[in-house]
């Protein structure tokens, strides 16, 4: 029974990250043909933005070392209107992506110095300088550019992240030419008041809500409540990972991406259009869970697939 | 970092159900002394309403057959201001509870005919008739009475439950003399718009929000988002189960109670007072998980107890 709540967007664009953010966190690399089928099934389930892979150096992310082999196998999807963004860390990655015809790229920044140092081996300012030619050249080539911004709420070393600090880096990414932002709660500590506070501060700094996506992690079980707070603010782009891939709740290293199915269950109930067929999506996550040899952490996948 | 969101209650009363709703769903009975220590630890963690047990016939709920032995062991807690409500199914149960000095009782009704028939072996009207003398006598004895209302959103046999039907049974429970209601999403299918719609309909029928508690299950991952919607409506009584007891996400029979820790994490972040010490509560759930021989399904418990 769909019961809309007033003031929410009529339609939400789900930015599906399972094939990239999910699979890059697997201990062992998934075969290229399984990745291709996974992405194809996600598109068949109605997802229209499926982040496909990352053109990062294989030394850092061996799980996605097959980007050059995978991406060309998806050409028919791109031709059928499915967006297939790819992550590029630097100009070398951009070259590889553009050579294959990628028309949607994403860069991955940090709101905190500590995470920038640990993840990018740079200061925040240095990372922005590194992204500058990447974004500029991507835009020159007509590509759409997404700017991921991690650690927007809490940071494992720095604790709570001041809203003004996040706004500063967010503005800098947009000033470089990014078309949209994805605000990441990388360690999942954020709560709904913090979400509203950050969104209001971004608006106050001139960032329109329609350029903002949200990327919540369920490490503390907050992802869907935070998503609701963002929807109530008008945000209409939400990142999620099919089956909750990208964080195994059984592992110490759990990152706990919001499961796309849990999100779609809520959006369906709210009468918000997504274009996604939940049954087909759940079947895809069950299929992928079998390939990975463990059950999906998504509660909706478990509930729907355990039906008697 | 506490970042309050406007319009939310300043304080939330958590109605802790782990010792009753949680343990009654365990395959094997937990020893009475473990139950007593569990309840004592929950009170020590700051919970002020800890549902203690059920005076139901041991044939139906053998896990709680020790109610007569357990309840007297908690006398000092009751004296120290901790509310220890007990569930009573009928007059016989009420007699047993009153004989031990219980001053807070709860009855357990159903919003749907199918669940009333299966769980209570009665029609809804017959169950209300059964509760009538229970509530009247409890009130005469000065006890506070809570009316649980299950299947307020979806029913496994009937599907979505019409709001008007829930309002009718809710009003009937209040007319019997119940002091407060607990609206249960027993199978966890509800979403935030549905929550708002039901709360508005109850208000429209003359039920004040301060007589309403909410009891969400996380079967589809919706419990905390639904809680946020209820808080935004002004609800300030929320049921939750320490460690998420009462529904194992690994079992087919998962009922998936909202974990108290996940709730407290959100409320702490929103600057809403609960009186609960999250570290002490988490330690209690870890201790209980060891007694039960399996990890807590609460994401916050997992995140906090896996800290390196």
CATH class of chain A: Alpha Beta
User: How many discrete structural domains of chain A?
Assistant: 1
Strand order of the largest sheet of chain A: 2-1-11-10-9-6-5-4-3
**Helix fraction of chain A by DSSP (H/I, runs of at least 4):** 40-55%
Q: Largest chain-chain contact? A: A-B, 49 and 49 residues
Radius of gyration of chain A: 18 Å
Strand content of chain A: 5-15%
By CATH, the architecture of chain A is named Alpha-Beta Barrel
Structure, explained:
Two copies of one chain form a homodimer. By secondary structure, chain A is an alpha/beta fold. Chain A has 13 helices and eleven strands. Chain A has one domain: TIM Barrel, CATH 3.20.20. Helix content of chain A is 43%, strand content 14%. In chain A, the strands form two sheets. A nine-stranded parallel beta sheet of chain A has the order 2-1-11-10-9-6-5-4-3. A two-stranded antiparallel sheet of chain A has the order 7-8. In chain A, helix 7 (124-140) runs parallel beside helix 8 (163-176), helix 8 (163-176) crosses helix 9 (192-204) and helix 9 packs parallel to helix 10. The longest helix of chain A is centred in the middle third of the chain and has 17 residues, at 124-140. Chain A starts with 12 loop residues before the first strand and ends with a helix. The relative contact order of chain A is 0.15. Chains A and B meet through strand 8, helix 9, helix 10, helix 11 and helix 13 of A and strand 7, helix 9, helix 10, helix 11 and helix 13 of B.
